[in-house]
């Protein structure tokens, strides 16, 4: 009878639906937020495009539809949009999402209500500027999850509102200042905002999103209050005033055992021998190297990196995409056998948490940055583009957690790789960098522990949604 159905709906947990841009660097923080929210008692549906769904099913073993899996006091389930495959080109993908995304997403939201789980809040992430309009059209409030740093948020915000002029890219000595941030040069600015940026449609999507971000009911951010206190404190003084940033990170795997492990966001299946291999290495001996899911090193860079890592004489675990492995020098794998391991994808959270890992040669994607901060592992920072440039500046100069690896004008050189690794692991400042990394690790863990600053922000969000 209708009265019974209404009573059941009233006692059902509130339903939060997340819609995620198709990229590993977005899926991981969105899914980790899904788990934090579910753990506090809500029903959470993670959605993205069909191609992400197919990869999550194949690599992470998730299944779409149904009641999902228990996480803490709630559940996480998956549903994917119907969409065609636009191919690997980023501009094609952006155009495709612009037209196919809105109707498919509206249909998904309506189906939730028809099936008895009306959506109380939609969480969108950047690069899908249409998703919040669709939710508003259905009368559903939205939260944004900003998946990069508060510093990067501030740089975008000032740029979009015409509040800053970045120095010319060809003048490395020129500096500018923004409230709550250190003096910066053009090299520290997310490269999407600079005239040389080749990814125009992606930059447009970010900028469009910034114009409307103030309409969101919450702007959650994958950072923690203690890490970016100055920039967060300065934002309310900026005119026009930005939305309040609510730090809920670091959104890392909390490694709370099987229940947490039941929902993972790997789009590529991780090699399953990495942890065993690390177990066999001495404590704090291994150089872990990875440039994330989207950076592609040139054949020359792969060769120099290979010789550089081999010449450190240290054990190393190196993530090299399958399509890049043919660029490894002939006989390389045999020549480093036993001491060096090359895998197409690693369980990075477990690698960084492993006691054998000594340093992380990273492209400084924001997830990798927060993961190494949380694990307390010093870095060799090798940023390529986008927010990686800003993140590297913070890791090395502001957090004091490592050194830069810079390519010479003629390209990356093996000696530079060797010297940067040595400086981070055994150089005169290595002890200082490890101590800083450990201090930041303790602060990160405290922020997400029960009652910590980010945990309290997640709880407040859950309480408001469930009200
Ligand atoms: C991209 C941008 O570079 C990043 O700055 C932005 O904030 C999000 O989109 P990506 O380049 O893939 O992301 O880097 P990163 O943000 O570091 O995310 C990669 C994720 O993949 C991390 O969570 C990392 O743990 C995971 N990973 C990477 C693995 O699990 N295994 C690997 O072998 C490599």
From TrEMBL:
Keywords: Glycosyltransferase, Transferase. Its EC number is 2.4.1.-. It is an enzyme of class 2 (transferase). InterPro entries: UDP_glucos_trans, UDP_glycos_trans_CS. It holds the Pfam family UDPGT. One of its GO terms (molecular function) is quercetin 3-O-glucosyltransferase activity. Transmembrane segments: none annotated. It comes from the Eukaryota. Belongs to the UDP-glycosyltransferase family. This is Glycosyltransferase. It comes from Panicum hallii var. hallii.
């Amino acid at each position: 009878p209708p009265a019974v159905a209404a009573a059941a709906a009233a006692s059902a947990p509130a339903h939060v639906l997340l819609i995620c841009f198709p990229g590993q660097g977005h899926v991981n923080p969105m899914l980790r937020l899904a788990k934090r929210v579910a753990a506090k008692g809500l029903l959470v549906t993670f959605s993205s495009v069909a191609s992400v769904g197919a990869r999550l099913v194949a690599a992470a073993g998730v299944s779409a539809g149904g009641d999902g899996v228990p996480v803490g006091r709630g559940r996480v389930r998956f549903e994917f949009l119907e969409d065609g495959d636009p191919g690997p080109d980023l501009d094609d993908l952006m155009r495709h999402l612009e037209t196919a995304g809105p109707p498919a997403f509206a249909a998904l939201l309506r189906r939730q209500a028809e099936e008895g789980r009306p959506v109380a809040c939609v969480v969108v992430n950047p690069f899908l500027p249409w998703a919040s309009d669709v939710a508003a059209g259905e009368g559903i409030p939205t939260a944004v999850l900003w998946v990069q740093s508060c510093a990067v948020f501030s740089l975008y915000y000032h740029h979009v509102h015409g509040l800053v002029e970045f120095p010319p890219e060809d003048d490395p000595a020129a500096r500018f200042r923004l409230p709550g941030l250190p003096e910066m040069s053009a090299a520290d600015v997310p490269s999407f905002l600079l005239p040389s940026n080749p990814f125009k449609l992606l930059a447009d999507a970010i900028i469009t999103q910034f114009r409307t971000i103030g309409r969101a009911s919450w702007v959650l951010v994958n950072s923690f209050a203690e890490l970016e206190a100055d920039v967060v404190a300065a934002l309310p003084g900026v005119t026009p005033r930005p939305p309040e940033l609510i730090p809920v990170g670091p959104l890392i795997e909390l490694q709370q055992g099987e229940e947490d492990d039941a929902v993972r966001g790997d789009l590529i299946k991780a090699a399953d021998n990495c942890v065993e291999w690390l177990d066999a290495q001495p404590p704090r001996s291994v150089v872990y190297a990875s440039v994330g899911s989207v950076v592609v090193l040139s054949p020359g860079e792969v060769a120099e990196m290979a010789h550089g890592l081999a010449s450190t004489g240290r054990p190393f675990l190196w993530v090299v995409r399958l399509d890049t492995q043919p660029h490894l020098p002939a006989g390389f794998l045999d020549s480093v056998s036993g001491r060096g391991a090359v895998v197409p994808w690693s369980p990075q959270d477990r690698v960084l948490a492993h006691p054998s890992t000594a340093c992380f040669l990273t492209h400084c994607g924001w997830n990798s940055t927060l993961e190494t901060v949380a694990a307390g592992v010093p870095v060799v920072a090798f940023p390529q583009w986008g927010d990686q440039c800003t993140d590297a500046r913070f890791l090395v100069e502001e957090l004091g957690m490592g050194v830069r690896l810079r390519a010479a004008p003629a390209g990356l050189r093996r000696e530079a790789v060797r010297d940067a690794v040595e400086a981070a692991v055994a150089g005169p400042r290595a002890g200082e960098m490890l101590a800083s990394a450990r201090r930041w690790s303790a602060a990160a863990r405290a922020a997400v522990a029960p009652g910590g600053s980010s945990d309290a922000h997640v709880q407040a969000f859950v309480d408001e949604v469930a009200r």
